[in-house]
Structure formats: C-alpha cells, structure tokens
Amino acid sequence: MDHDLPVLEIERVDLACAVNNAEHHTELNGVTRLIVRRGQPFTVVLHLRAGPPFHNGINIKLIATTGPEPSEDADTAVRFGLGKLISKVRWSATAELTSESTVALTVCSNPNAPIGLYQLTLDQDSGVSLGQFILLFNPWCKRDPVYLANEAERQEYVLSQDGLIYRGKPKHITTLPWTFGQFEPDMLDICLKVLDKSLQHLQDPAQDCSERRSPVYVTRVLSAMINSRDDKGVLVGNWSGDYTDGVRPTAWKDSCSILRQWYQQNCTGVEYGQCWVFAAVACTVSRALGIPCRVVTNYESAHDTNSNLLIERYYDEFAEDIGDDSIWNFHVWVESWMARPDLKLGYEGWQASDPTPQEKSEDIYCCGPAPLRAIKEGDLTVKYDAPFVYAEVNADVVEYITLRDGRHVKVDGSTTAVGQCISTKAVGSDEREDITHLYKYPEGSAEERQVFEKANHQNRLIQNEEEPGVLVKIKLNPKSMVGTDFDVYARVKNNTDTQKNCRLMFYAQAVSYNGKLGETCGLTELAEMNLAPTEGGKATLRLQYSEYGKVVTQDRMIKLVALLVDVQTRDFYRATKTLMLDSPSIIILVQGEPKVGQTLKVNALLVNPLPEALENCVFSLYGANLTDGAPITKEVGTVGPEESTIAELEFTPKATGIRKLVIDFSSDKLGNIQGYENLVIEE
After folding, report:
1. What tens digit of pLDDT does each residue of 605-621 get?
2. Which of 100, 216, 244, 326 has the most crowded CB, counting CB atoms within 10 A?
3. Could you tell me which residues are beta bridge partners of residue 352?
C-alpha cells in the first residue's frame, strides 16, 4: 500500500440499501442490507470525519472478497482503484464529493464475478470495512450469461413468487398452484447455505466459491443438492406410499416451508418429496440466486435405465411389470436460461436439469443442465446428461410378455408414446404453454426420425409391421368423480377374415404417477369371445368406490389393462389406459379490496363427494407476501357424506402486485385438493 497517500477518515458508511436494492430488483428481499446484481453499479455514501480534504483525484483502492479463502487467482478477491468511468467488463469504481463531508462511491462488479456474500474494504492502513453485500446473477445485464432480453419473461422467470405446476395425464391435465416465495424472509440466506452444503464446497471451498461465477456450475450443484441421495441435500424422495414418519409429497404447497425445515434441522433432508416438489424447490433457489427458471412437466416420461434409448417393458402373463425401464404418467423438472460458453454456439437458451434422483451422473445423483437444442437435434455428446433427458422425451417403446416357458412375445411398440404435452406456465398468465416443439420435431415427421437415427438408437423397432388383425381398445366414462361408482369398457374388433376364439381379461389397478402399480381394484374374469370376421365385442368393468377407495394413492390414478389371448394361435393383444379420478373444486370468495396492510377475509367452500364422512378437515391459505411465511389454517372438523363445508380465513397482504392466493383442503380420506385466485394488491 502507498503510505504517502492521504488517509480517508470515515465516520460511517450508508449502504443506501433501499435505493440500491430497488434498482437491482432485490427490494422484495427487504432493504435492511445490500443485495445487488453483478455487472450493474451501486452507490454507497461515505460520511467523512474532519481530515485531509477529499478531492476527485485522490488515489484510493478498494478490495472486494468472497468465500473462506479469498484469492486474486480464483477471482474471489479483487483490488481496484477509482476511475473516471465505470467499466462494463471488470470491477471498477468512481467517487464524487457530494458535500464537504460526504462522498458518493459508485462500485460495479465484473458481470462474471462469483455470486455470494462479499466484504468491501478500503485498502488503507489496516483496511477500513465499508460493509457487506450479497452479489447475485443479473438477467438485466447483457454481459451476464443469464441475460434475458424480454422484461415480461424476467418478471415471470426471476421475480414471480408463485406459479402453476402441471400434473395428471395428457387428456386430463391438472393444475397445482405453487408458492415459490424466493423473496420471503430468510430465503436468500438459506439458498446460499444450500450451495455451502454441497459436496463440491465441502471438498474444496475455495475452488467452489470461484466456480460460482458460472450459472452452468451452480445449476448442476443445485440439481444434486435439492435431493439428499448422497449429500446434505434438501429433500428425501419417497415413492413407497408410506409417509407416516414425514410429510406426504402432495401435502406441500410452497418451497419456503421445505427450505426452512431443512435449515432448522441442521441441513438434513426433509421428508418427503416427489418430482414436482424437487423441481419447485430447485426453481425457488434458482430464482433467488438470479437464474431465470421455470418448472416443466413431461407426460408419458421415460426412465431409461440402460441408456439404449429404448424402453423395453417386460410383463408376465398377468401383465405384471417385471422390467427395470419405466414410463411415468408425468415427470417434472426445471429449465434454466443461460449462455453455454463451455459449448459451441447455438446451445445457449433454455437448459433442462432434473433434481429428482433417478440415475447417477459423474458419481452423484444429479442431471443436467442439458441444452434443449441438443435434445431436439439428437446431439447426445453434449454436457450434461443429454442422453438421459433425450430418452425421457423421445425413447421408443417396445413391450414383451414373458411366457411361463421363458419365451418373450412382442405385443406392442410405439415410436410416439413417450414425451407428450410438455408443459409450463405461460408468461404473465395462468394459461398452459405447450413447449414440446422445443424438445423434439413433430412425432413421426422425417426430421424426428432422422434425429432418432442420429441419436444412435441401436435397438430400434422394425418399421412397417403389419397392423395386428385383432384390435383392443379401452373406453372411459366421461364422469369419474372420486367417491362415485362408474363403468369403463374394453372393445375388441376382429379385423381378419377368419373366426377368432379369444379370451379377454379386463382389470383395474391403482397406479402412482411414476407408473408404479398398486393393488387390483376391479376385475372381469377371463371371458370367452367368439368373433366372426369384422365382428366386435365389448366387456364392461364396474369400478366401485368401496373397492378403489381403499387402494388409490394420493395421485388418484387407476390403470386399466385389457389382455386378449387368441386361443388357437396363442397371440397376445394388450391395451392399457390410465384413468384419473375427478376431484371436487374449492370455491373461493374474497371479501373487500386487497390492499397492503389491510386485513382481508376469504371464504372457502367445498362439497364432500364421498359416500362417507371426512374427518380432521382443514383448509390452509398460502401465498407469497400474503402470509408471514407459514400457511394460515382453519380446522372444520367432520364433514358428512355429500355435505358442504365452509371456512372463513383472514390474511394481511404485505406487498403490492399480482399475487396468487392458494387454498388447500386436506382430511383423513380426501386430500391433495387446491384452488387459487389471482389478487391485485394495491397500496
């Protein structure tokens, strides 16, 4: 340090948090501390004691440091002086005398600086601390790899604290309102703690903090840390149906309660999550750190265990699934927006990453980020985990029945079943946006098949097979409210010129959203069918609440299977369909004008559709900036069969803007039911 320089006598420093945070779109984090985005200037005010007069030519140096072992080589320490202008490509500062005793010091970080908690020091004598600030990724800065040009998209993918997650099945898509709450109290600190608990940080803290300049790196760390399979991650996955020692995955409605619980229980995994919960929490942490992020649902999603891009389904003669590959009714992951300087041009933009622990990548349970463009073009050499994501949306399916003598009989095949209706919430509205075209060319198109060949599909199906002479189809009843009894049908058609003597088995099984089968809840025994050429037949299966009510999971899904055997030839024909039971609606009535700081009343109404009473009925109210972080609940006790119940809840909005008011209903026999209302909160 230069000892002949005049020393600034600083009495106090005003970090001007309210002004700076508002300019950096972080004011919703609060204004009690400085939170800024990289590559964008912020100004602090130095109040001087009497001493040598400050003049604009004074040569002072500043030091900014982050991480446990700051070093200039790792970009976690940087020393820079005052200039006449702010630089757009490196750390820089300017100073202006605003009165005899105050100096406005404007500082701008490198747009590729590591994110995290920084110390800002004046480099003189023993060093004078000017204070701390948190530095985040900056989608508003053109030189930041997460730059997003469209302001409406920045509002949706960075600043919006609530959203919609899609579940169900392609012909029955259901909507789950979710509170991301990335600006709720303590959230930013907890999200930074998630990075600090990663294996990368525990093994080499200095290197990890340095790598945090890259959104690709941070996204990959989050993909590993949101699940707890091999680290101190946030959520424990459970698809068993037994959640007695934790929280049912369908009970969660917001990310904040999960992240807070993880933090409060000494950073140990919260029980329990499934794919949409993992994805929602990953979205919260990504948005909190400044990475534009959205939650995406893929229907008929393949889980390819042996990386051959082919989903091989093996069943026994009773259609029990006996293979490893699986197809989930739906699967949810996230996409994050960023440039990919580590890859060739053209692979910037949306990147898929999947925090649900399915397969290991580089020895830990994580997946992505993989560029959507690479998935669409079948370029599976691209980092990270492109083959796995490609198979999720584009694997071919071939099905076999394993006979008692050990022979495998091929019964079915499809090049179009996997990867349907890929969905995310639209920008600025509650509409569903179909983004299947970002992942794949239209099914069956020449481009899609070319891409499939390029993706090196060793075991592709033999094309141009004869249409089978016997057709089996399942037809659903349009009305299938949970609690009611209703019929489903199997139709058989003999499209051959010979008489067919067949036996039909038609049955129903409970199924989870990830394709895992439960107990049987309806069965039509093997029925004889003698079909003349071109003749058809029908079998009816009655589904009764007294049977399916005991075995369906929280997903309210039933798998129907029709298995037809030609008695003479021993040929098998199989049809399957997943039925989703309808659930009752919650009617929401808001009383009064939504204003900040003004208590609002809301009535929530629900009719019990079951032929039996519901016990322990509770309504819960959620919403970013509507509650104090925890849900507001109202117990309504017992609700009789087909009776209605109403609850009055009160809340006080904390901030202006469009907010989602979410009401959840739970009871002993019926849960996983939500309704929502968009409120415009005014001053």
Report:
1. 999 999 999 999 999 99
2. 216
3. 335, 370
- 194 shares a domain with 127: no
Looking at this protein, which amino acid is placed at residue 407? R
Assess whether 163 and 279 both reside in one domain.
yes
Q: Which domain-ending residue is among 404, 421, 454?
A: 454
Is 275 an annotated catalytic residue?
yes
121 and 213 share one domain: no
Answer with the residue of higher pLDDT: 193 or 504.
Answer: 193
**Domain contains 460:** no
Residues 224 and 275 in one domain: yes
At 591 the three-state DSSP class reads strand
Render pLDDT for 173-220 as a digit per residue (tens, 0 to 9). Answer: 999 999 999 999 999 999 999 999 999 999 999 999 999 999 999 999
Residues 313, 236 share a domain: yes
- Paired strand residues for 351: 336, 371
Please name which of 81, 46, 43, 78 lies closest in space to residue 61, comparing C-alpha atoms: 81
The answer to whether the beta carbons of residues 227 and 198 sit under 8 Å apart is no
Which listed residue (304, 354, 385, 412) is catalytic?
354
Is-catalytic flag, 204? no
Higher-confidence residue of 419 and 97: namely 97
Name the catalytic one among 275, 283, 367, 617.
Answer: 275
**Running DSSP on this structure, what letter comes out for residue 251?**
G
Domain count, the chain: 4
Q: Where residue 478 sits, what CATH number does that domain have? A: 2.60.40.10
Query: Which two three-digit tokens encode residue 361?
Result: 């990548």
If asked whether residues 361 and 434 sit together in one domain, one would say yes
571 part of the active site: no
The closest of 368, 385, 305 to 333, measured between CA atoms, is: 368
Domain that includes residue 427, residue range: 151-454
The catalytic position among 24, 25, 303, 331 is 331
